[in-house]
């Protein structure tokens, strides 16, 4: 069961003139005196959301929320997690310089990588600061914003630096997801399916129904998926299904492969493997793979064949997984909506799964 106890707030046009959800949340998190705010923002979000800075400024002024310092804008995507701590140190230094107090809050607005970088950095200041996460991609709304940890990459190893970092709250405005590139949008579906496939059969069935329309960037489908999967995540907690493969693919590409696409391939590999091991039927496997393809999350395969084809190197991801998690065990679907832990993956069967994907 999930042990996540922080509030999750959905807000439509969170910084709009009629929006009060964020202000009310900030008031509820205060201990008497109204908190000051430090804002960390994803450069991709700032550049793709017209007038965002002005809109945020007016919102804070309207609700009499004081800024502790100028906003910090960091590179989006994995860049901020792979820059030898430069972005993390920039954020930590600003938190120190602005003399953020125990009653103050840091708002982190961005995709999963920026959430990771900021929360990792802020966990180092006074042993942790109060952070409100505001995810802006489908994937981060479903998964990254709710993680109890924050990660950085070092020496080419995905998420090799990890610290405990639970948010004070999560605020989700699904409108932000409409600003992302097509590939980021489509790959968000894979994150939803990764969670549903081993946690919730009804959610899995609904995702399979929505796959094709999701590809068209239908806002209603996206909003439904984010809300549904947020509920699943709150009830069931996190899952490591598919992550050994996606982490390895990102590392093999020197983090040029977008996280969401790596997740899609990781889900496909492990779903095929689960079918070969008899945990799901061939029909169930086909449905999942067809959904990944019809939603567009597998559009990256043609550009990633050299990584998938390098079977021996890719399977080293199982060794990396053992080093990072302390165990070879991987999570797999048992039926669609149930999960099973396989303590020692069969590498020959995994090779067969990779060959079938190729």
Key descriptive features of the protein:
358 residues, alpha/beta, 15 helices, 51% helix, six-stranded parallel sheet
Give an overview in words.
- The protein is α/β, with parallel strands linked by helices and 358 residues long.
- The two termini are 36 Å apart.
- The longest helix is centred in the middle third of the chain and has 18 residues, at 182-199.
- The relative contact order is 0.11.
- The protein has a 6-stranded parallel β-sheet, with helices on both faces.
- 51% of the residues lie in helices and 14% in strands.
- It is globular and about 60 Å long.
- It has helices spanning 21-28, 43-48, 52-62, 86-97, 112-123, 138-142, 182-199, 201-215, 219-236, 243-252, 259-276, 282-294, 301-309, 311-325, 347-357; strands at residues 8-10, 37-42, 72-74, 105-110, 131-135, 149-154, 157-164, 169-172, 330-333, 339-342.
- Strand 4, helix 5 (112-123) and strand 5 (131-135) form a beta-alpha-beta unit.
Short description:
By secondary structure, the chain is of the alpha/beta class. It has helices at about 20-30, 45-50, 50-60, 85-95, 110-125, 140, 180-200, 200-215, 220-235, 245-250, 260-275, 280-295, 300-310, 310-325, 345-355, and strands at about 10, 35-40, 70-75, 105-110, 130-135, 150-155, 155-165, 170, 330-335, 340.
């Amino acid at each position: 069961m999930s042990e996540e106890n922080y509030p999750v707030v959905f807000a439509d046009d969170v910084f709009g003139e009629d929006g009060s959800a964020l202000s009310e949340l900030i008031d509820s998190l205060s201990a008497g005196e109204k908190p000051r705010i430090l804002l960390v923002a994803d450069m991709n979000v700032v550049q793709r959301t017209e007038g965002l800075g002005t809109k945020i400024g007016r919102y804070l002024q309207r609700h009499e929320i004081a800024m502790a310092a100028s906003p910090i804008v960091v590179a989006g995507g994995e860049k901020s997690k792979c820059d030898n701590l430069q972005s993390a140190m920039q954020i930590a230094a600003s938190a120190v310089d602005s003399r953020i107090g125990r009653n103050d809050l840091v708002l982190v607005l961005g995709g999963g990588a920026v959430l990771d970088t900021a929360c990792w950095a802020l966990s180092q200041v006074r042993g942790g600061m109060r952070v409100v996460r505001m995810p802006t991609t489908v994937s981060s709304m479903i998964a990254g914003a709710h993680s109890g940890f924050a990660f950085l990459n070092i020496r080419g190893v995905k998420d090799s630096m990890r610290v405990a970092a639970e948010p004070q709250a999560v605020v989700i405005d699904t409108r932000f997801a409409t600003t992302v590139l097509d590939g980021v949008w489509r790959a968000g579906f894979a994150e939803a399916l990764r969670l549903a496939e081993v946690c919730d059969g009804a959610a899995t069935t609904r995702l399979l129904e929505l796959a094709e329309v999701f590809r068209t960037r239908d806002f209603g489908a996206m909003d439904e998926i984010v809300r549904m999967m947020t509920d699943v995540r709150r009830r069931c907690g996190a899952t490591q299904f598919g992550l050994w493969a996606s982490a390895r693919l990102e590392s093999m590409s020197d983090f040029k492969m977008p996280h969401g696409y790596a997740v899609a391939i990781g889900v496909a590999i492990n779903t095929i493997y689960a079918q070969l091991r008899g945990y799901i039927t061939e029909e169930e496997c086909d449905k999942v793979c067809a959904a990944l393809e019809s939603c567009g999350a597998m559009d990256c395969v043609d550009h990633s064949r050299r990584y998938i084809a390098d079977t021996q190197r890719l399977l080293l991801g199982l060794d990396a997984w053992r080093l990072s998690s302390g165990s070879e065990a991987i999570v797999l679907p048992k039926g669609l909506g149930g999960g099973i832990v396989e303590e020692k993956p069969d590498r020959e069967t995994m090779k067969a799964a990779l060959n079938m994907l190729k």
